[in-house]
Amino acid sequence: MCRLLVAIALVLPAWLSAAVPTESGRSINGHPFREYSTIDVLGRKVTFYVSEHELPGDKLPLVVYVQGTGCSSHFTRRNGQVLAGVHRLVYDVLRGRARVAVVEKPGVEPFDDPGNRPMRESCRPEFFYEHTLDRWSEAIAAAIRSAHALPGVDDSSTLALGISEGGMVAVRVSNVLPSVTHAASLAGGGPNHMYVLAEYVRRRGLDPQAIVYDCWREVQTDPQNTTRFCLDHSFRQWSGFYRTSLIEECLKSTAKLYLAHGSADEQNFIAGFDMMRAELAAKGRSAVFERLEGAGHSMDLPSQVAPEGLLAVFERLARWFLDDQSG
Question: What class does CATH assign to 14-191+244-325?
Answer without folding.
Answer: alpha beta
